[in-house]
Every structure is written in C-alpha cells, then in structure tokens.
Amino acid sequence: MKRSLVWLVLVAACGGDDGAMGPSPDGGQPTAAQIAEAVDKCHTLVSSFCTRFADCSLMWQAPPPERAERITECKQSAATEIDCGKAIGVTADYSRCLREVNEFSCTVLFPQPWPPADGSLPASCEKVIQHR
Predict the structure, then answer these.
(1) What is the mean pLDDT of the chain?
(2) Comparing 111 with 6, which gets the higher pLDDT?
(3) What is the pLDDT of residue 121?
(4) SS3 for the chain, per residue?
(5) b/e 80-92 (16+ beta carbons within 10 angstroms → b)
(6) Is the pLDDT of residue 26 over 60?
(7) Cα separation, 110 vs 52, whole angstroms
(8) Whether pLDDT at 47 is above 90
(9) What's the pLDDT tens digit per position in 63-85?
(10) Residue 13 backbone dihedrals phi, psi, to 5 degrees
(11) pLDDT at 69 (0 to 100)
(12) Structurally, how many domains does the chain consist of?
C-alpha cells in the first residue's frame, strides 16, 4: 500500500520528538501504566484512522476491495511508519483528535481524487501521541 504522504501526516501525529512525556505522579518519567495506556491509545488512533480510510475508499473506488482487507493493509502500512510500542504519553487533545477522526467527513480527511495523494488529520491530532 503506497500511501506515504498519508502516513507522514499520521507519523507527525504520533511523532512527538519534542521530548515531552506523559504525566507522572512525581513529574518525572511516566509510569508503566501510563506507558501501556499511551501504547493502547496510539493503536486506537491508527485503528480509527484505518477504519475511516477503508470506509472512505469503499465510497470512491470501484470495484472496492473488502473492507477488512483495506483495514488490514492500512494497519500494516502504519506499522512500517509508526512504532506505537514507543508511545509514552498523550496530550490533552487526544480525545478531541480521536473524536474528529471518527466524525469528520471523508472529503475532509481524504480529499479527492482517490486514492488521495495525502490525507489530512485534524489539527488536534498533531503530535498527540508522545514517544521516546
């Protein structure tokens, strides 16, 4: 699946290289529970994005591949660009980002023509997942 520019947008969303970390009780390193939660949230964001990608592609492509196949391909592509296993925290915008990924229209997330040259995650998603 060749969607490099789409994934560059998502990589930026998961690519907080500014050294920021998730919250911790003592203001230092994130706890194991916080890291596990951040990893789960990164996977949830990728899954939500890929589900939307699959749903939007079914609207615009003929004949459409199976929805599940689209989601699987998208997640495999994401795994080559995004290492959710390195997530250590999320920003305060995470819930808003996820909501907008799920609610924004296909034409907002994936401008025509199909397949998109790039995708556009909502601004709230920029560096929403912090990683080490």
Answers:
(1) 77
(2) 111
(3) 77
(4) CCCHHHHHHHHHHHCECCCCCCCCCCCCCCCHHHHHHHHHHHHHHHHHHHHHHHHHHHHHCCCCCCHHHHHHHHHHHHHHHCCHHHEEEECCCHHHHHHHHHHCCHHHHCCCCCCCCCCCCCHHHCCCEEEC
(5) ebbbbebbbbbbe
(6) no
(7) 9
(8) yes
(9) 666 888 888 888 888 888 888 99
(10) -65, -35
(11) 86
(12) 1
Domain span holding position 81: 4-131
**Could you tell me the CA-to-CA distances from 61 to 1, 65, 105, 121 in Å, in that order?**
15, 8, 16, 21
Residue written as token pair 């003929």: 62
17-21, 110-114, 128-132: range with lowest mean pLDDT: 17-21
Identity of the amino acid at 86:
K
Q: What angle do CA 131, 19, 78 make, to 5 degrees?
A: 25
Q: Sign of dihedral through CA atoms 5, 10, 13, 19? A: negative
Can you read off the two tokens belonging to residue 71?
Answer: 């989601």
CA 11 to each of CA 24, 58, 72, 87, 119: distance values in angstroms, whole numbers, following the listed order? 24, 24, 18, 12, 12
